[in-house]
Design brief:
This protein is of the alpha/beta class. Strand 22 and strand 23 (551-557) form a beta hairpin.
Length: 772
């Protein structure tokens, strides 16, 4: 008996020792064939480079340094190598592009082939992901495998905002290291914004002597009104800037990691910091004494460069000249977003420019501004890229559009044969929450989970094959209003950035959420070992209504692959003894569903997800729109207005949105129904360009053809009321019988005078039509 046991143990040990470890490479290579056996990485291994040169030497040096970090020994680099070796080969490699590579691992040799150093570097990243994250003194083995790999997209990027909060050069390098580890190749450096100027410009010393520092009165979230640049210089000590020498060092550091830095110099808006230092380039250079107040976000302050002042263009050209001397990137980002054009409307010089150039309005003045800057960049053999607002008034001839307000700007630009980088707020704003806000660090708002990032497709269905070629790729953006520490930066990008890296590198067909989750787990362990801060997962349960055959069902979903959902409908918090979710269940009356996740039969800490349902005679009934709702606000699908859930002040949830158009919805109650009131819920959020309707008209019908107006309810809330709020528009009448209900909500049309979006299409947000 004992002998049999010992034999079994020996067999088990042999199996473990010979077990082939799975390769957990992120992004998923285009083609990976794992073989039996492994390459033992020890002190006997030699490194050989097929050709000399700085670029290939940089890759080899990077690799040997990484190996030394996890092993403690330095691999010798030789021009000729015998025995066990790792060979780096630069050679014409058929079937792969400039960033592609071929990697072959056998027990005696690792062979890396690429046509460019970038391919070698990315092969190195794949190799390093098979090794421990930190030094553990374990035997280092690289599984035998064959990889042929290259990226799907040219632009694989991340943006870091250092204006709201400044991060040291060392931390910027760490950010670049994380990008490089997952084969991202573009670092969009948001160096300039209203909250601070972060780049040394030698010709204009006040940009770093004054505009780089502010009084640390940031205040409550988003409260920019507290910013002071120079009201009291003894207090204006919060901020910082990068010297030109530091920037040169960071640019070289990034280049050695195959990362191109694209600098952003914001214009013509978001320029409060620059105007605090050089107010003569604004539209009101004498109106306000910044030295006395330092308040550059006050009501009398205009944050734009004056588009009618040639000196302002001279200033920007001087700045860009120094920027281009520091950054060799093809692209220079000029911002161009959220321009408050009200200053231009009242500026004599700007109005004179409009008349002289034969422009129609301030939108075309913005286009003139961007055109003029583009000509300057083209003359210096650079390309202009800007946020999608640069489309307003006409796009500059060779400009590239970075589409952040959804994908519509990118689609329009690609259809005009302009290159595009997709960067929509959903799901590529990484300052949004990635888990339950109740348990997550402070974020700007919104909800972009790991799974949502992973399922993003950068090429919109609206583009044909030729237009799709203009989509260079995509990038995620990390704005830092709420992010003041680098630990918080790490947390917001990990592990969402590796997920985006796979979206942009791997083929669309190769992406698999469950497989990615499995490959991600060793990376999370590595983050832990390295002391990196990261989100350990989205443990939130999503409570989603479903309308099926007139019935209101509720489904419960979670992104966590190891989780089990428990729920209640009696108001109590769920536990492992509560109802276990198996399939959608029906809601037959007003109640509150609470749901929470258990991992390995242990409830996850934190407040459970909670959703109240209120049923009425319209709940679950068929609904048709005269004008489609925006695809960027799908909420719970076509039945959102009759799904029993009320919208809140969170614009990202439960609302159907209409941009510049009215909402006209018709509901079939299925049979003659007696009721005495009809209600439509709406949202107003001034800062998000969302306004209550001017009025809501309620009509009823017996046949769906001839309608009788029951009431038209006018809005009584001022459009300038900036507090986010909801409002019910309700028609009350003597009870009567009808089968059909038609509700019309009149869009405000355009953002009102004095609003940052003055004259542009207003949003109308509607939710839940109630018949009672």
């Amino acid at each position: 008996m004992k002998q049999g046991f010992m034999i079994s143990v020996c067999v088990w040990i042999a199996c473990v020792l010979n077990a082939q470890p799975r390769v957990h490479i992120i992004p998923q290579p285009a083609d990976l064939q794992q073989r039996e056996g492994a390459f033992l990485l020890d002190q006997s291994v030699q490194v050989k480079a097929s050709v000399a040169g700085k670029e290939i030497a940089d890759v080899v040096r990077y690799f040997t340094a990484a190996v030394k970090q996890v092993s403690g020994y330095a691999l010798p680099v030789k021009t000729t190598a015998t025995g066990k070796r790792i060979r780096f080969n630069i050679t014409a490699t058929e079937g792969i592009g400039a960033e592609g590579y071929r990697l072959s691992v056998t027990p005696s040799q690792v062979d890396i082939r690429a046509s460019k150093p970038a391919g070698l570097f990315y092969a190195v990243q794949s190799l390093l992901q098979t090794l421990p994250a930190i030094r553990t003194n374990q035997v280092l083995q690289i599984p035998c495998m064959e990889i042929t790999d290259e990226p799907r997209f040219k632009w694989r990027g991340m943006m870091l905002d250092v204006s709201r909060h400044f991060f040291s050069p060392e931390l910027v390098k760490e950010f670049i290291d994380l990008l490089a580890a997952y084969k991202m190749n573009t670092f969009h450096w948001h160096l300039v914004d209203g909250a601070g100027w972060r780049i040394e410009i030698k010709k204009y010393p006040k940009l770093t002597g004054l505009a780089a520092w502010r009084v640390d009165d940031w205040g409550k979230p988003w409260d920019w009104s507290q910013i002071r640049f120079n009201a009291d210089r003894s207090k204006a000590t919060y901020g910082g800037f990068y010297t030109q020498e530091q920037i040169k060092e960071i640019v070289a550091y990034a280049a050695a990691r195959q990362v191109t830095i694209v600098p952003e110099i914001e214009m013509p808006g978001h320029s409060e910091a620059a105007m605090a230092a050089y107010p003569e380039y604004s539209c009101l250079p004498q109106k306000r004494s910044f030295k006395d107040t330092g308040d550059f976000y006050g009501k009398d302050v205009h944050p734009n460069y004056c588009a009618g002042n040639d000196a302002a263009f001279g200033f920007l050209q001087d700045v860009l000249t120094e920027v281009m001397a520091l950054f060799p990137s093809t692209y220079i980002h000029v911002g161009g977003d959220e321009v408050d054009k009200s200053s231009w409307k009242h500026c004599e010089l700007c109005q004179r420019r409009i008349k002289k150039e034969g422009l129609k309005n301030e939108d075309e003045l913005q286009s003139y501004f961007i055109h003029r800057i583009e000509k300057f960049l083209i003359a210096h053999k650079r390309k202009l890229i800007g946020w999608d607002e640069i489309l307003e008034g006409g796009l500059a001839p060779q400009a590239t559009v970075m589409s952040w307000r959804g994908e519509s700007g990118g689609i329009k630009a690609a259809q005009m044969d302009h290159d595009v980088v997709m960067s929509p707020t959903g799901p590529l704003y990484f300052d949004y929450y990635q888990g339950d806000p109740e348990t997550e660090p402070l974020a700007f708002g919104g909800f972009n989970t790991l799974k949502r990032v992973y399922h993003y497709e950068p090429i919109p269905a609206e583009l044909d094959k030729d237009q799709a070629k203009h989509v260079l790729g995509a990038q995620a953006n990390l704005w830092t209003e709420q992010i003041s520490s680098y630990e918080h930066v790490e947390y917001m990008i990990l592990p969402r950035m590796p997920a985006l890296a796979e979206v942009l590198w791997s083929t669309k067909d190769a992406r698999n959420w469950k497989d990615f989750n499995q490959r991600l787990q060793p990376h999370l362990v590595g983050f832990e070992q390295k002391g990196l801060h990261y989100s350990k997962g989205n443990f939130k349960v999503d409570i989603k209504p479903q309308v099926v055959d007139g019935k209101l069902l509720v489904s419960l979903e979670t992104e966590n692959e190891d989780g089990t959902i428990f729920y209640t409908t009696d108001g109590t918090d769920p536990g492992t003894g509560s109802l276990r979710y198996e399939k959608p269940f029906e809601i037959k009356g007003a109640l509150t569903v609470k749901a929470a996740l258990a991992i390995h039969n242990s409830m996850v800490r934190g407040r459970p997800a909670q959703q109240s349902f209120t049923l009425n005679k319209a709940t679950g009934r068929p609904l048709q729109y005269a004008t489609p709702y925006s695809k960027y606000y799908p909420a719970n699908g076509p039945s959102t207005l009759v799904d029993g859930i009320r919208g809140t002040t969170d614009a990202g949830k439960q609302w159907h949105a209409f941009n510049g158009s009215d909402m006209v919805a018709t509901i079939d109650l299925g049979q003659r129904t007696t009721a005495g009131s009809i209600t439509l819920g709406c949202l107003q959020s001034y800062g998000q360009w969302i306004f209550f309707p001017q009025w809501v008209k309620f009509e009823v019908s017996e046949d769906g053809k001839q309608f009788t107006e029951m009431a038209t309810v006018k809005n009584t809330v001022p459009v300038a009321d900036k507090a986010p709020q909801t409002k019910d528009f309700t028609a009350r009448f003597e009870p009567r019988s009808f089968r059909y209900v038609r509700v019309t909500a009149k869009n405000l049309g355009q953002c009102p005078k004095g609003h940052p979006g003055e004259g542009q299409a207003a949003w109308l947000f509607c939710d839940e039509i109630m018949v009672e």
